[in-house]
Amino acid sequence: MGKLYTALGLMSGTSGDGVDVSVIDSDGIDQFNEVTNKYFKYDQKIYKNLHYLRDKILKSDDLNINESEINDLEREITIFHAKIVNQILKLVDKKIDFIGFHGQTIYHNPIEKISKQLGDGNLLSQLTKKTVIYDFRQNDIKNNGEGAPLTPIFHKLIINKKKIELPVCILNIGGIANITAISEYDENSLKSKDLGPGNCLIDEWIRNKTENKFDKDGKIAKLGKTNKLILNQALDIFDNRTNKNIFSFDTKDFDLNFIRGLSLEDGAATLTEFSSKIITTELFSFLSKTKNKLLKVLLCGGGRKNTTLVDRIKNEIGEELIIQSIDDYGIDGDYVESQAFAYLAIRSFLKLPISFPSTTGCRKPVSGGTIVGNF
Predict the structure, then answer these.
(1) Is residue 156 in some structural domain?
(2) How many C-alpha atoms does 166 have within 13 Å on its Cβ side?
(3) Is 143 within a domain?
(4) Whole-angstrom distance between the N-terminal and C-terminal Cα of the chain?
(5) What domain range includes position 367?
(6) How many CA atoms are closer than 13 Å to the CA of 345, on its beta-carbon side?
(7) CA 152, CA 181: separation in Å to the nearest integer?
């Protein structure tokens, strides 16, 4: 057994509502223990500024046009992260070796090989007096990868740790839905890709139409009626997209134009059906390319709590696959990604690979992350 490190992982997903924090012990290979998990909600100012700014950045040129606002928000977000890290440091009776700082994605384009996360690692290190590892995606992109998904190597670890029978898939439904297929405990057997929209369209619709941030439990969608004509047109457009061979999506790859004019409930119902159909169609397409037929799919991420979305996915899949929550195996599905970035920080320090040709499209397995100790 290698040396165990204690790492703190910070993850703010595409929902942009707050930060998941996890502390783990790991050797960066096959040893892993949870220490603590906690969620911190963004204050209303950061939340509004983030979504306002993200809505303005539709193409890479917008990163330069809005540079001043981006820098201001990056500082705000980094200070927020520093405050919550310092709270966690007081709660945890352990020396934290590394902080894995994912940052807040505001633009991701795999075709252009650009992935921009807000998060100043130097400032976070200065404010927390800890070694910070951040900017995890850039080395993968330099090696012809798409910079995402990065969590598959951690998915393999938790499946191994819980001794879950293989083959198995982990379906993460965040803003974007992504899948990891694990057929063996060997990292070279990992396969992963983004499937399409998870919560992002539903969340945006609810934000635009109400004071809420998401459709809790899918209750609004359940009250509505799917507009089949609009749905089928939107599915045809998605099916005829030009970028079918990419590993990763940005929330900007999808928009709400096709449901303009629908009521709150019917719009939510149509978007939920749209997302569920894409997830299931792309899931079957993905599994058809793996050696084994994977019978078990474990759900994690916030979207697993949207019972209307999950029920529709189950109805589409029928009895061909077993759909379960990852929580059934003693894994908290809310904190898989924050734990993953704590684990990736340790692997980055050890110069172990965090992405692979079959997970991001990179030329060879590569490590990643920029390491700073600004204290």
Answers:
(1) no
(2) 19
(3) yes
(4) 31
(5) 5-150+335-372
(6) 34
(7) 8
Are residues 103 and 69 in contact, defined by beta-carbon separation less than 8 angstroms? no
Total domain count, the chain: 2
- Which sign does the torsion angle of CA 208, 210, 215, 220 carry? negative
134 forms beta bridges with 101, 370
Closest CA to 308 of 226, 213, 212: 226
User: Do 142 and 23 share a structural domain?
Assistant: yes
**pLDDT tens digits along 160-196:** 999 998 889 999 999 999 999 998 766 667 999 999 9
Quick check: pTM over 0.85? yes
Summarised one tens digit per residue, pLDDT across range 19-57 is 999 999 999 999 999 999 999 999 999 999 999 999 999
176-182/168-173 β-pairing: antiparallel
Pairing assessment for the beta strands 5-12 and 98-109 based on DSSP bridges: parallel
- SS3 state at 49: helix
Within a domain: residue 158? Answer: no
